[in-house]
Amino acid sequence: MPLNNETIKERLIGKFGDQLSHFEEPYGLLTFEAPKELNLKVLQYLFDDEELRFQFLTDLTAVHYPDQAGRELAVVYHLHNLTDNIRLRFKVFTAIAQPDVFTATQLYSSANWMERETYDFFGINFVGHPNLKRILNVDEMDYFPLRKEYPLEDQTRIDKDDAMFGRGPLPAAANQGAIETPRHEREARVPASATPGVPEPKQDWPNT
Amino acid sequence: MSAEHHIKLPEGSIEKTTTTLNLGPTHPATHGVFQNILELDGERIVSAEQTVGYIHRAFEKLAERRPLYQITTLTDRLNYCSSPINNMGWHLTCEKLLGVKTPKRVDYLRIIIMELSRISDHLICNSVVGVDSGAFTGFLYVMQYRELIYEIYEEVCGSRLTTNMGRIGGFERNFTNAAFEKIEKFLAEYPPVLKEFENLFTRNRIFMERTIGAGPISAERALNYGFTGPNLRAAGVDYDVRVHTPYSSYEDFDFEIPVGSTGDCYDRFLVREGEMWQSLRIIEQAYAKVQDMKGTESEVYHADAPAYYLPEKKDVYTKMEALIWHFKIVMGETEIPPGEVYNAVEGGNGEVGYYLISDGGRTPYRLHFRRPCFIYYQAYSELTKGAMLSDAIIVMSSLNLIAGEMDA
Amino acid sequence: MARPVRFNVHPIKADIKNNISLVDMPEGHMGEGFFTTKLSSVIGLGRKNSIWPMPFATSCCGIEFMATMASHYDLARFGAERLGFSPRQCDLLMVMGTIAKKMGPVVKQVYLQMAEPRWVIAVGACASSGGIFDTYSVLQGIDQVVPVDVYVPGCPPRPEAILDGFMRIQDLVGQESFRRRNSEQYKGLLQSYGIQ
Description:
The structure holds 3 protein chains of 3 kinds. Chain B is mostly helical.
């Protein structure tokens, strides 16, 4: 009998009981959630089980949900059973204050760089990783750029006229302090209109 | 090397029997910007440490600020040797999310373009492997024929390399007759060239000695390292997304998956050669299928999805309905369903995956690209351990590392 | 099987009179058996037709440069036959592709390793201005780290555009004054980049 989502779900519930939750099948891909302490146990079980054989780690990444207090960061694993050609996705949620998740590098060599990338982007601390340091960005970077609170653009650019982008002129105070204040504080600066003494920016452009 | 030192080191110096060699990030032989710090014992590589990120452009963050149809331009620049595959992979992902069903003709036209770009991708890789083993002729020879592929792209979308081809739901315009003529010309002219290219290399003694046994990997390790595409198939695993999860009507085609056995450079070269032949087969079949279509079916070039497919420009200028849809799509007024999609296509280097989370907004909430290069480059130190220094270069080029894809 | 390639089995006899393009003579006075002109014109003439480019290809534009250099477009026609991969030997730094902030110091390092006189061409939107990548990790144009002589627009530029940019560089090289590299203005320019 070929493996299908139902069987996988039954096997997983049989093994882990109600610790696994949120079983869904968006666009036919079995998705569930595991507590973060269990992530390695689930991976190991899926890897070792003679019937499940999820032995190929397709993808590992993270998502940031700033609105979910206590479970802001989600680590998402995509696994693939190449023998039966069936995929599976599972997520592990962690608090942003202490983003510790066990590493999968012992199981999959490919997880090494994917976890480094995830650390680089989201600051998830993979416990037990052999070489957890930044991979794509410069080592000196002091924030995790893909978290939602950080802006996309380079904030140190001075050649862009902000008024042309509907953002209004920069407050003079923030400009002067730009060198001394640490980067993350600068980025969280108040919008121009909130500073007293600075004229309201023109509302001609849609303020998106 | 014997344990005793022939050169007397000065008193108090730290003994170090290996040499450190910095290869990259601008080394001419690296074909891209990545750095390898090699520890050498004589000419043998003891260990290699890779540094990547030299052209990190923050695609994933950028994608969170762009409406779906504008992300196509970003996907171009991932693997720029085969950008149409990335474009269409992205469109297929969006279509999966939005529930758009494409007509058969669109699928076949896409397949023609995707297989052409697979050929151009493998062509560069294989000719560069040739260059690195000392055969520059093959490279100069096939570059001429890659131009034929680019001419087809130009005819279809107007651009050569970063094509930005197609729309969500199909193509921007129908293929012109000139495009079909050029495809025919390519199908006629290219096979003899490929044959000649093969004759230059496959049984060439120098080439064989340079590549056989260089950078081998077992199937088990390759899977553990997350290899996909030609590099995995060279190790003997017949995994191909086109067959395992057929997209864009690949199930209608008859083709084979070339598989190697040892996973060394020579096998990778042969697998890519084999795939080019198979791609030619697929293009021929798809071309015949498109030509066989009759009636209204033979004119279709996009899906009937007015809410997502940008209307034609001439309609926008003349018809109210089209203008309204155009406005709605561009201003992000159309409904994007919330959901989570993972979609994969077989890119030039392996499984290119798009993990898209939509929260119903105009732009993706999160978009992650599974970039095959990034994942298998970490195996490089294992592949080159104990190899000669000159093998380091050829292993790198036969893996077909594309810096743009690696660093996103 | 029909061969698509033509071999020079019966080569056409070279038509030296009408078929070979020669560079124009610089301005000067000619008499019987002599020709006088400025030293800088002669040197400029020599320099501009034997530029050694140093390709600094990082991404997409690099692939277009491969096409420019290969048989179809053939950059060697312009006297740039030899691509030097050692900055010490080269006159022209061709920066092609996105330069991330991580890469910025490397570009500068390569520029510093080149000997004077040196020229820089920024090929493509990314090298010229950051292009579509207005992000935290991308350098917004290489002119933030090294002085640039010619910018080639396009994303990526077609090989013809790269050739055109190359010809603009040739014009600059040919017309360059002898004293430019010693002038206060030039030193000031380098100073503004922190180069001594």
